[in-house]
Amino acid sequence: MNAEEQQRRRTARELHDTLGQQPAALHVSFELLKSKGNNDETVLTDIHRMREIFDQLNSSVDFLAWELRPASLDLLGLDAALRTYVQNWSEQFGIEAAYHSTGMEGARLLPDVETQLHRIFQEALQNVHRHANADRVNVLFERPDGQAVLIVEDNGAGYDPEQSINDERGMGLINMSERAALVNGNIEIESQEGVGTIVFGRVPVSDVI
Predict the structure, then answer these.
(1) Which residue has the higher pLDDT, 64 or 18?
(2) What is the mean pLDDT of the chain?
(3) pLDDT of 62-109, one tens digit each?
(4) CA 206, CA 88: separation in Å to the nearest integer?
(5) Could you say which of 74, 112, 139, 184 has the lowest number of CB atoms within 10 Å?
């Protein structure tokens, strides 16, 4: 998993560095075309349509880099990375989302703990996007009594965790549980059909840096 995270970090950096300059140049080209359009409505409409496609593609690439490995996770820590990711995820998928943290201001957990909690968080949000049909997500990150607790709650369709063990959501739960176990943590799921789902991730964090 360390090798996987290193590869994710390299790929995210290459995406940012390689594609970061090209969109800026393309933006200038759009403006030049627009200035040469001579107020031709057809030309201006085509330019506007291309600009919309470009903006969407640029946003998708930025989000992909964030999914691979957000730079803020290494530079600023898990609390800052989660806060920014929730905002970007909400904008990307059009689902209202809020983030709250308690007792994590300025605290850094051990790198392995931060990495695994971040991946658990991503898996939980991915399940919301793919399966929950939710329009609201709340994320809470806190540190009570020597634990880091990550809670992801949605108001979606809900499901029966025991009956879903062999489908994609069940595999996601297995992935989250395995990642939590790597840092001596655990995952709990509370879900009810028609009500929503809550994912609890708990990891002991006696070591805080």
Answers:
(1) 64
(2) 82
(3) 666 666 667 778 888 999 999 999 998 998 899 999 999 998 877 889
(4) 31
(5) 184
Which three-class secondary structure state does DSSP give residue 108?
coil
Q: Which of 92, 78, 183 is nearest to 139 (CA)?
A: 78
Residues 6+ apart with CB under 8 A from 20: none
208, β-bridge pairs: 109
Looking at the DSSP assignment, which residues form a beta bridge with residue 139? 99, 152
Cα separation, 12 vs 69, in Å, equals 6
Cα–Cα separations (whole angstroms), residue 182 to 1, 31, 97, 117, 202 = 10, 51, 28, 10, 12
Q: What fold, for 77-204?
A: Heat Shock Protein 90 (3.30.565)
| Domain ranges across the chain | 2-68, 77-204
User: How far is 100 from 140, CA to CA, in rounded Å?
Assistant: 5
Reported as a pLDDT band with limits 50, 70 and 90, residue 46 is confident
